[in-house]
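Supplementary Note 3. Input sequence used for the single-chain structure prediction.
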Amino acid sequence: MEEFHKVRRLPPYVFEEVNRLKASARAGGADIIDLGMGNPDLPTPKFIVDKLCEVIQDSRTHRYSASKGIAGLRRAQAGYYKRRFGVTLDPATQVVATLGSKEGFANMAQAITAPGDVVLCPNPTYPIHAFGFIMSGGTIRAIPAKPDADFMTAIDRAVRHSIPKPIAIILNYPSNPTAYMADLDFYREVVAFAKKHEIIVLSDLAYAEIYFDDVVPPSILEIEGAMDVAVEFTSMSKTFSMPGWRMGFAVGNERLIAALARVKSYLDYGAFTPIQVAATAALNGGDEAIEEVRTTYRRRRDVLVESFGRAGWQVPPPSSTMFAWVPIPPAYRHLGSLEFSKLLIEQAEVAVAPGVGFGEHGDDHVRIALVENEHRIRQAARNIRRFLASNGSAGENVVSLRAHS
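The predicted structure, written as discrete structure tokens, is reproduced below.
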């Protein structure tokens, strides 16, 4: 039977191949150290859980909630933007609560995309950035992921040579998977370009609070005039270790926020009210919890870089996010990231995310997530050391045989 049209437009989910191999190895008794999926292992801070438990006792909160988020939650998000970025938002018209940033992106795509619309999307990038628009009937034109002069040259070329003209540019800084960061000068150029060419800017700022050095990630909405063209998406998943709670936000341009809110009103009733109230408490009083999360990831990053480096695999230290974007060792690069990731599970009992899952320009990298404690990261490094040593000078032949099997 022929695949449905929208399903047919989606490629095989690369990560699923790794997940199947990982599950099979575990079923066989292997102790797989999973550094693949960006699924935070840290517990949600106790004060947030306590607020959820308190509110859930009130049966009135068990009814349908508000699709765009309860008023107190939207006010709390506006308050966070004012404290963190100096950006003033109207909670009534410029803030929508989403079921995580992923849902927000997908439904924004539904709201603004007509069949055949062109969207400029970084490659490599988080899959929903591209596939939210592909599922909505749009067409993706790839642009560089790094926020530099080449990026600006690429979007200028895309606007001049794409038919029809692109409707939107997607940004993601700090970036998943590359951990690239953007500064205000870069955002200023993008906003000026978008206003000149009447293009929407969709900024994914999910990792705004996960940074390790002196440079603090900014918001595009800090730029004068950005509110005319931009919407920004954030998430509480990593910031507060709340991935399963599915709580995020879209903020910015009123027209775009209204379009998203209208689509959502037909599709969902919002998150469970006690979750929204607990999220409100987190935003209003969670600065200490954010710092603890940041400190934990910084410590894990340092252990990863040091221990993997001693094992013989150099890891460029990320300045932000909970990921390292790591070149495949030269002797294994010809395999590509998917086959190399499978090899690591089979021979090192370590799972990573193949870079090709984030776009074809990521195929010479893998993404390593900081989702295991320091002890497990060091254990993974020992496994990697044995893996590299066991292949040794014969490594080329071993992996070549695999590539042609």
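The chain has a mean pLDDT of 93. The chain has two domains: 5-43+289-403, 46-286.
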